[in-house]
User: Which sequence fits this backbone?
C-alpha cells in the first residue's frame, strides 16, 4: 500500500538533546511538508520541500532543521534551540502544487 | 487576522440534524480549497475538495464564494460517526489550515 510513514509514534526528548523525526513516503510525491499542531491551534508549517536537495522555511522554522537527500524521505530534527517542542508533528506530501495533502499518522513529542 | 478563520465550536447536534460550517480566508489569490476531517489525536484526512461550482459527496456539500472569500460545508442527516474536528484549508501553492470546527453528534 502506498502511503506516508512517520516514526516513531511517540518520542521523548531530554533537555539539550536533538531528536529526529522520520517521514518516508512511497507515493512518488514531489513535495513534502512538516507541520506542528498544538492543542486549540491549527497546523503550523515548519519546513517544506518541493524537490530533492531543496527546502524552504515555513512559518515557525526556528529550532528545527530538515534535509531532503532522497525523494522518499524528509526527516525533521528538533534541536535544543526549540524551547517548547511538545506538540503533535505531522508530515504531509503532495504530487503537484494545489492538490490536497496526504498526511502521515504523526509523531507526538514530549519533554522529559 | 488569521489567514483562514473558522468558528471553533463545538457544534452540538442530534443525530439526523443538518449542520453547516463556514470558513473565511484572507488571501484573495487562493486557488485551492479543501475540507479535512480530524479525529481526536489522529492525523487530518481529506474529506473533500471544494470547487467553484460547489460539489457534493453523499451527505456532504461544499461551496465556495470567491467574492466574499468564504467556504462552507453542509452535513445532512448527521451520524454519530461524524463527530470530529473539521479543518478548512485554502491557499495558492502553500496551503493554510484553519484551526478547525468541532462537531459533536449526540444520540
Assistant:
Amino acid at each position: 500500500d502506498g502511503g506516508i510513514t512517520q516514526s516513531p509514534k511517540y518520542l521523548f526528548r531530554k533537555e539539550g538533546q536533538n531528536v529526529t523525526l522520520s517521514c518516508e513516503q512511497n507515493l512518488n510525491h514531489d513535495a513534502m511538508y512538516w507541520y506542528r499542531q498544538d492543542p486549540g491551534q491549527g497546523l503550523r508549517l515548519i519546513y517544506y520541500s518541493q524537490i530533492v536537495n531543496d527546502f524552504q522555511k515555513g512559518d515557525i522554522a526556528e529550532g528545527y532543521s530538515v534535509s531532503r537527500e532522497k525523494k522518499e524521505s524528509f526527516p525533521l530534527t528538533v534541536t535544543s534551540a526549540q524551547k517548547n517542542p511538545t506538540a503533535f508533528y505531522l508530515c504531509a506530501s503532495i504530487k503537484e502544487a494545489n492538490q490536497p495533502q496526504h498526511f502521515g499518522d504523526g509523531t507526538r513529542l514530549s519533554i522529559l | 487576522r488569521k489567514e483562514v478563520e473558522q468558528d471553533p465550536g463545538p457544534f452540538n447536534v442530534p443525530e439526523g440534524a443538518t449542520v453547516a460550517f463556514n470558513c473565511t480566508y484572507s488571501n484573495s489569490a487562493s486557488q485551492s480549497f479543501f475540507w479535512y476531517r480530524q479525529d481526536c489525536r489522529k492525523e487530518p484526512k481529506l474529506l473533500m475538495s471544494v470547487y467553484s461550482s460547489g460539489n457534493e459527496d453523499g451527505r456532504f456539500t461544499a461551496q465556495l464564494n470567491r467574492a466574499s472569500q468564504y467556504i462552507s460545508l453542509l452535513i445532512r442527516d448527521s451520524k454519530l460517526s461524524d463527530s470530529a474536528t473539521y479543518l478548512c484549508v485554502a491557499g495558492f501553492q502553500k496551503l493554510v489550515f484553519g484551526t478547525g470546527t468541532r462537531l459533536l453528534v449526540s444520540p
About this structure: The two ends of chain B are 37 Å apart (CA to CA). The mean pLDDT of chain B is 94. The CA atoms of residues 15 and 85 of chain B lie 17 Å apart. Chain B touches chain A through 24 residues (CB under 8 Å).
